[in-house]
Amino acid sequence: MKKKRWYDYLWMWTILYFALGFYNILFAWLGMIDFLVPLLLAIFWGNKRFCNRYCGRGQLLSQLGVKMKCTRNVATPRWLYSKLFRYGFLVFFLATFGNMIYQTYLVGSCATTLKETATIFWTLQVPWNWAYSRGAVPDWIAQFSFGFYSLMLTSALLGVIVMALYKPRTWCAFCPMGTMTQAICQYKSRRSRPPQS
Amino acid sequence: MSSRPKLIANVNRKICVACGTCVTQCPKSVIDVWRGSFAVVALAQCLGCGRCAAACPIGAITLRERVKSEGETL
């Protein structure tokens, strides 16, 4: 049996993140770690070490799927890992991220007011007002928190759904961060000769 | 003389998403992700146990027969 390392327990981070966001939405900013670290590793070191070692979500899906058997464990449909779908989903994800930044800007410029809701699956507005006391921080900071938490929660729920339907880590096949970092890595290594195996 | 396993893991680099699921599953730690692009297997050390193939979310790893040049002791 392989020796466990500290990063094998990062699945707890994912649970902690959503729990903290349930208690206080401002903790949603911590999700930027999961957003920036994989990009920095890909851009400066040309690797996907985040996906391979440090992704708490991937590990949590493995825990639920492999250890707790909450998966049908059947083959992922081909279209879910086709280049068209993966890059299409990446574009969609970036568009929703851009929209979230725009909403933050609108609140920051007083064009609209703060919405204390979590938007699940891009449409479903769920009240989340218990997790924030108005006036604690500038409204735009809170707006970003609600938006970012919504994005994280939606993608986590999608991950759990595809885990249950297909394989534990089916989410990884079309995870926008995974697609983006792989594209960066492939670009960076375009002139290197791949090993034979 | 010990004989090597007849089967080895084979990665389809064209579809591999480099998620690293196989890396965590390999009991001998003979799989690595090459420059964030695709998984590579150290064929000489591969046990052919198939754990990586079973765990791969997209079926990018299959088991195939080892050929002489890949270190099988005949």
Topology order of chain B in helix (H) and strand (E) letters: EHEEHE
Q: Order of strands across the widest beta sheet of chain B?
A: 1-4
Structural class of chain A: mainly alpha
Question: End-to-end distance of chain B, in Å?
Answer: 9 Å
Strand content of chain A: under 5%
- Count of discrete alpha- or pi-helical segments spanning 4 or more residues of chain B: 2
- Described by the principal axes of the CA atoms, the overall outline of chain B is globular
Q: Helix/strand/pairing class of chain B, anyone?
A: alpha+beta
CATH class of chain B: Alpha Beta
Q: How many strands of chain B?
A: 4
User: What is the H-and-E element order of chain A?
Assistant: HHHHHEEHHH
Low-confidence stretches of chain A: none
* Whole-number tally of structural domains of chain A: 1
Q: Which percent band covers the strand fraction of chain B?
A: 15-25%
Question: How would you characterize the largest beta sheet of chain B?
Answer: 2 strands, antiparallel
* Largest interface: chains, residues each: A-B, 39 and 27 residues
Strand order of the largest sheet of chain A: 1-2
Radius of gyration of chain A over all CA atoms, rounded: 18 Å
CATH topology of chain B: Alpha-Beta Plaits
The average pLDDT value of chain A, as a whole number, equals 96
Brief rundown of the structure:
Helix content of chain A is 58%, strand content 4%. With 197 residues, chain A is mainly alpha-helical.
Walk me through the structure.
Chain A has 197 residues and is mainly alpha-helical. Chain A has one domain (8-188). Chain A contains 8 helices and 2 strands. A two-stranded antiparallel sheet of chain A has the order 1-2. The longest helix of chain A is centred in the last third of the chain and has 27 residues, at 139-165. The two termini of chain A are 25 Å apart. Chain B has 74 residues and is an alpha+beta fold. In chain B, a hairpin with a 3-residue loop joins strand 2 and strand 3 (38-41). The longest helix of chain B has 5 residues, at 21-25. Chains A and B meet through helix 3, helix 4, helix 7 and helix 8 of A and helix 1 and strand 3 of B.
